[in-house]
Amino acid sequence: MFFVVALIVSRVLNNAPTLKTKTDSNDRARDLLDKVVVSSAAKEKIEFYLNQKRLIDAIKELRLATGLDLRDSKSIIDELVATKDIHRLRTGAGGGNLIAGAVKSAAEESSELSEQVKHDIEDLVRQGQLIDAIKVYREATGANLITAKNYVENLKAKLQ
To answer: Average pLDDT for residues 69-89, to the nearest whole number?
Structure first.
């Protein structure tokens, strides 16, 4: 019996993943803070939630505004709480566009689209096929879901 337990413990310890240190997480949060841009409205909501000590709501808002995953959003919020400096969260016109580690404005991404793809997306929006328009945009640009959704919604508003 002892042998079986020792064997199991040995396998668990040998296959155990290395634990990340808190410093690694903090460094990642600082790096992300340098890259993430949110809208002014999103920043105001996040600041409100932080002032109210509603950290989960602040994390949710950051995820909605940027498309970041839960771990990265939590790291950023934890860093903002630790430093007590919401102003480190940058705002911009193209807020919420975090793509492959680089921040791009909606105007920059729009200019990357070919005229044919822009025309196709406009047609889909006019036909009310917003989900298909989002898919086409994402395929053409490699953008995350939030960015594509924002682009299509802005286009819809312009076309109305």
So the answer is: 85
- Cα separation, 91 vs 22, in Å, equals 27
Instruction: Annotate 111-153 with DSSP letters as a single string.
Output: HHS-HHHHHHHHHHHHTT-HHHHHHHHHHHH---HHHHHHHHH
Contact 114, 106 (CB under 8 A): no
- Give SS3 for 6: helix
Convert the pLDDT of each residue in 100-137 to its tens digit: 333 444 444 455 678 888 999 999 999 999 999 999 98
- DSSP secondary-structure letter at 54? -
Strands (E), 6-129: 37-38, 90-91, 98-99, 102-103
For residues 105 and 136, is the Cβ–Cβ distance under 8 A? no
Domain residue limits, the chain: 19-103, 106-159
Distance CA 105, CA 109 (A): 6
Q: Is the dihedral of CA 55, 56, 60, 63 positive or negative?
A: positive
